[in-house]
Structure formats: structure tokens, C-alpha cells
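Good morning,

Attaching, inline, the C-alpha cells for the sequence recovery test we're adding to the shared suite. The designed sequence is right after.
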């Protein structure tokens, strides 16, 4: 494995540090020299390389964006609102913090530890609609989430936001690791703003995941029609020959209204969440890909600007020549591609470039071979030297998987199949709780009736018998797997009457929208299990 990646013999230990140094030494000088940020995205900062993976959640009004984030975190974040009308009117970065708090947009743009300093050009109106929420949540220890305002429908398209919404979406799309585009089974129309937003995502299709949410609200026949209509509508906007992958499900804690396709919904959720769980592991690779993509765009931009400089007269007829060059930009693109053997895919959108050039003074700089040679070295040599480091990081990345929330569960019990969660034991705090303090006691008679109707054997129900009843309550299997793990206090693979009542209580709690505990609290431990758990704790302490 190479130990050195540049002429200064700097030894890199992690890929992000290597990318940061290569960017500052070989790419940033070229961006500044040719005014790259005047036409494309602003220059990168250290926070862009050091930040955790980010997920951008986008969708029309009332498609379940904030509800899906709550489902992912298993708790609400400060300032979140959920309702049938458009309730999220701000961009909200949800990040980990030991103390809950909100930081407003104007403050975020001067914080060098956050990757949002380059958002200030979007103006005060946008910054007044941007905030960062800190939340002590285990999921957020590995990733950050960006909640967005609902995309306006056709009826509300004339309402002005006061800032360039698609441009803001484009900025976030370039800086995040995953984009989740939520669609509603009952809202398949593509409004003007929705179309412009999707176009703002172009160039980042590898990060995009389309989700058809609230799919349990239609039956199987209607779902097939909705799915086909959505694919047809998206195909017209994306204009790509590839068929988009659309994940189908209902990402909330409420019971499924129609259970015809529950197995499909479970599998789709597992696929979607598996990709999210692996984001920290793939973060270095994503940053590497984004830097290569950026370097290729910078190279094409440099040749475009230098070519315009070469064809521009020094004094006379500059305005006429400027108009001619802008009109002939497609020909200039083709000439550069043939002369320097650059792929057409590396070039910026021609129409957009023509529009930007109209307002430019055309005081460009000519070709500088030394800077371009450094860029070629980055693309052809330095990136290849990073690959061994990248593989080394991937080999050690198992510990980087997202944990907590729906990514925390059990590997045992009747809901094992497809369960993506790790096993966590109980906390052993129950020895100080009296029998009278069991919070499930008031509901136990109700669950005792169900328990004995299921015909227990020697006072216990097997996992097979319990599974049928638990499935009838309609939470996702991933949730039921966690409830089984918590309720099976003695870990014998069966439930007695107290454990069964505990499972029923946890299901009710989850259906009411509350998060499940990662470990069973003391007041939930069944009275008959407390002495046993206490003895087990004392034994571990004596050992």
C-alpha cells in the first residue's frame, strides 16, 4: 500500500484527510483561477469532508416527510409539526447533540464546524427559513437528516417563497449522501415546482431513492395502478432510459389499514433501511466519487473559459462577439471534446451555461497548463493511490453502521427473518422497584383473556402462537421483533402471562406514536422476573 500521496510526503491515515489535502493543493487553485464558483457550486470547506453522512428528505406537501423522519428516529424533533396541511415551512438540519436546541440559519452560516457556510448567498429570506436542531438520538450519532418544506401543488404554484427553492435543493443534493423523494399514493400530479425540484436533482441520481409512501391506504389492485402511474409521471420528468427503483411502503408507526401487501412492505422497508444503515460505511467512497465528479467538471469548465478567452477580441466588437460565442457554445463544446478527448458527460448543461454567460463580462483567463497538469495528476494518479486506503477503511467499517431506532433489534424470536437489529441486554435496574409499581398491571386482565384463549402449554405460549396475534395488531415486523425481544425477559423463546401482557402494552405504546425503549425500564419488568434479574445482576457484580 502506498504510504505517500503527494510531493510533500504527507502520510494519510484516512481517506477524508487525503481528499481534503488533494482538493486544497490541486483542485481549489484551478477553481479560483477560472471562477468556477461564479457558474457552479461554491468551493468546498473542511466541514464538507469531515461531516457525517446526510440524508435529504424531499416531497410534496403532506406526503409524510416529517412523519417518516419521526419513524426513523422514534421521537419527534423540536419544532416539528405533523398535520394534513403543509406544516413544515423550513429547511431543518437534524443533527446529534447532547442537549436539545435550535440554531437559526444566520448563525449556521458562520459556524465553521457545520457544512452550511456556503448557503449565505441564498439570502436572508431563505436563512430565516433554515434551522439546525440538535437532538440526543442514537441514530443521529451516525447520520444527519435534512427535512424540507413541502413542494407546492399545482393550485399553489403562484405563491412565491422569496428564495430560489430548486437552487437550494440542488445545493443540498450535491452535499448529501442520500436523497429520499417521497410520493403519496393519493397525490401523483407533477406540479411545476415538483418538476423543477426533480430537475434540480439531476446529476445526483445515484443518491436518489424514490418512495411511494402511504401505500397501505389502497388495495392491491389500486396499488398496481398507482405504481404504474407514478413510474409514467416520473419517467416524463427524469427523461432517462433507466427505470427508477421505487420503494413501496408506509413509513409510520400506525397500524396498516390494508394488510394485503404487508410482506412486500416489510421487504421494501428492509431494503431501504439497509442502504441507510450502510451510509457511514460508504461515506468515504461517496466523497471520493463526488470529488472525482467535481474535478471532471472543473476541467471541462477550465477549457470552456480558456476557449472563450481565446476567441474574444481585445477591444472592438466585444458585445457582438460575446453574443456570437454564446450562440455557438454547443459548437465550442464539441470542439473541446474532440481536441482534448473529454467525455460529453463531464460538461455542464449547455443551456444553463449560455444563460449564465449572458450576464458575465467575459473578462476570462487563458489556458494555464501547469494547473491543468496538476488536475490530470489528481485524476490519473492520486485517486488510484487512495484505493488501498479506501479498502482498508471498508474492512474496518462494520462498527460504523447506523445504530438505534429501527436499526436496533433482536436476532432471536419468531420475528427473526429479515430483522436488521443487534441484540442489546436489559439494564438490570429492576431490583429497586416494588411489585405494586408494575405499570402494566391495570391492563393485565384484558391481556390475560387473550393469553388463555390462545391455549398456553404449561403456562406459556410459543413464539408461533404469539406471532399470529402480534401480527394481527399490524405494526411492522421490524417493530414486533423489538417488542418480542423486550417482552421475552427470561429469553426462553416463549411468553408467560406477564410477558404477554408486557408485549401487548408495548404494542399499544408504539401504536400511539411513542418510541420503544432500547432496554426494558425497571417499571416495565414483570414482578415475577425481578428477583431473577436482580440475582443475575448480583452474580455478574460478584464475578
Amino acid at each position: 500500500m502506498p504510504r505517500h500521496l503527494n510531493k510533500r510526503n504527507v502520510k494519510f491515515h484516512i481517506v477524508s484527510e487525503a481528499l481534503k489535502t488533494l482538493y486544497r493543493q490541486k483542485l481549489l487553485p484551478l477553481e479560483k483561477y477560472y471562477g468556477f464558483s461564479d457558474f457552479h457550486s461554491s468551493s468546498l470547506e473542511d466541514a464538507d469532508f469531515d461531516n457525517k453522512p446526510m440524508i435529504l428528505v424531499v416531497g410534496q406537501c403532506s406526503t409524510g416527510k416529517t412523519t417518516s423522519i419521526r419513524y426513523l428516529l422514534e421521537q419527534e424533533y423540536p419544532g416539528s409539526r405533523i398535520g394534513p396541511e403543509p406544516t413544515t415551512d423550513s429547511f431543518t438540519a437534524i443533527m446529534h447533540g447532547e442537549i436539545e436546541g435550535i440554531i437559526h440559519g444566520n448563525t449556521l452560516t458562520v459556524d465553521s464546524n457545520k457544512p452550511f457556510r456556503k448557503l449565505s448567498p441564498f439570502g436572508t429570506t431563505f436563512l430565516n427559513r433554515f434551522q439546525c436542531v440538535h437532538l440526543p438520538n442514537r441514530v443521529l450519532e451516525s447520520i444527519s437528516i435534512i427535512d424540507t418544506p413541502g413542494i407546492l401543488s399545482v393550485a399553489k404554484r403562484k405563491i412565491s417563497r422569496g428564495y430560489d427553492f430548486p437552487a437550494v435543493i440542488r445545493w443540498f443534493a450535491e452535499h448529501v449522501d442520500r436523497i429520499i423523494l417521497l410520493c403519496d399514493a393519493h397525490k401523483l400530479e407533477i406540479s411545476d415546482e415538483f418538476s423543477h425540484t426533480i430537475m434540480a436533482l439531476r446529476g445526483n441520481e445515484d443518491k436518489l431513492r424514490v418512495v411511494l409512501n402511504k401505500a397501505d391506504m389502497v388495495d392491491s389492485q389500486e396499488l398496481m395502478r398507482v405504481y404504474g402511474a407514478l413510474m409514467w409521471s416520473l419517467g416524463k420528468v427524469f427523461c432517462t432510459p433507466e427505470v427508477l427503483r421505487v420503494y413501496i411502503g408506509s413509513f409510520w408507526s400506525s397500524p396498516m389499514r390494508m394488510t394485503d401487501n404487508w410482506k412486500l412492505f416489510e421487504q421494501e422497508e428492509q431494503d431501504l433501511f439497509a442502504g441507510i444503515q450502510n451510509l457511514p460505511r460508504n461515506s468515504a467512497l461517496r466523497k471520493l466519487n463526488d470529488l472525482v465528479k467535481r474535478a471532471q467538471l472543473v476541467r471541462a469548465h477550465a477549457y470552456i473559459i480558456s476557449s472563450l478567452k481565446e476567441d474574444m477580441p481585445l477591444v472592438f466588437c466585444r458585445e457582438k462577439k460575446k453574443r456570437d460565442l454564446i450562440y455557438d457554445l454547443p459548437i465550442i463544446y464539441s470542439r473541446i471534446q474532440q481536441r482534448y478527448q473529454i467525455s460529453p458527460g463531464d460538461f455542464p448543461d449547455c443551456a444553463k451555461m449560455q444563460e449564465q454567460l449572458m450576464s458575465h463580462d467575459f473578462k476570462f483567463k487563458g489556458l494555464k497548463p501547469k494547473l491543468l497538469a496538476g488536475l490530470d495528476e489528481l485524476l490519473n494518479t492520486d485517486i488510484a493511490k487512495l484505493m488501498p486506503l479506501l479498502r482498508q477503511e471498508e474492512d474496518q467499517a462494520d462498527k460504523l453502521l447506523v445504530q438505534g431506532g429501527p436499526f436496533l433489534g433482536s436476532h432471536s424470536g419468531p420475528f427473526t427473518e429479515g430483522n436488521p437489529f443487534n441484540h442489546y441486554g436489559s439494564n438490570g435496574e429492576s431490583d429497586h422497584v416494588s411489585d405494586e409499581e408494575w405499570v402494566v398491571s391495570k391492563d393485565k386482565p384484558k391481556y390475560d383473556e387473550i393469553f388463555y384463549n390462545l391455549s398456553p402449554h404449561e403456562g406459556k405460549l410459543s413464539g408461533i402462537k404469539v406471532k399470529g396475534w402480534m401480527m394481527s395488531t399490524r405494526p411492522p415486523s421490524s417493530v414486533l421483533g423489538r417488542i418480542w425481544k423486550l417482552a421475552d425477559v427470561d429469553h426462553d423463546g416463549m411468553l408467560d402471562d406477564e410477558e404477554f401482557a408486557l408485549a401487548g402494552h408495548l404494542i399499544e405504546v408504539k401504536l400511539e406514536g411513542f418510541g420503544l425503549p432500547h432496554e426494558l425500564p425497571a417499571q416495565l419488568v414483570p414482578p415475577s422476573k425481578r428477583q431473577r434479574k436482580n440475582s443475575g445482576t448480583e452474580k455478574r457484580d460478584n464475578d
